[in-house]
Amino acid sequence: MGVFQASKCWPKEERYALTDQVRRSSRSVCANLSEAWAKRRYPKHFVSKLSDAHGEAEETLTWLTFAHQCGYLLSDAAGELISVYRQIIAGLVRMMNSPESWCLPDPLRLQP
């Protein structure tokens, strides 16, 4: 929501370029994480969706950097959002590196 709020005052000429791109990628991080969570019974699917979320978070970082360099984001706001996305990326990488601690047991593999 921070990305959405920050992008509300960007120039109209950026509406279908930078503004749309950063909003889509930031929302996609959340959507892919939700999908990953729903698929946590299957470690490979879980990691695949986390990887998609990671890619979208990296894309969001790129758009935020452009917004800052174009003067649409002040240094403080840019620094805060970039810091949040770096934390998100670090968390996603940790989750991908140890999916077993996040995934549910597969009920088909459980023996009574």
Topology:
Layout: H1 2-7, H2 15-38, H3 43-69, H4 75-97
Terminal CA distance reads 46 Å
- The CATH first-level class comes to Mainly Alpha
Discrete helix count: 4
Shape: elongated
Task: Tell me the CATH superfamily.
Answer: 23S rRNA-intervening sequence
Q: How helix-rich are the residues, as a percent range?
A: over 70%
Proportion of residues in extended strands: under 5%
The CATH topology: de novo design (two linked rop proteins)
Structural class label: mainly alpha
Radius of gyration, in angstroms, nearest whole number: 17 Å
CATH structural architecture: Up-down Bundle
Characterize the structure shown.
The mean pLDDT is 92. The N and C termini lie far apart (46 Å). The chain is elongated. Helix 2 (15-38) runs antiparallel to helix 3 (43-69). The protein has four helices and no strands. The chain is mainly α. The chain has one domain: de novo design (two linked rop proteins) (Up-down Bundle), CATH 1.20.1440. Helices cover 71% and strands 0% of the residues.
Question: Short summary of the structure?
Answer:
Helices cover 71% and strands 0% of the residues. With 112 residues, the chain is mainly alpha-helical.
Can you give keywords for this protein?
single chain, 112 residues, mainly alpha, de novo design (two linked rop proteins), 4 helices, elongated
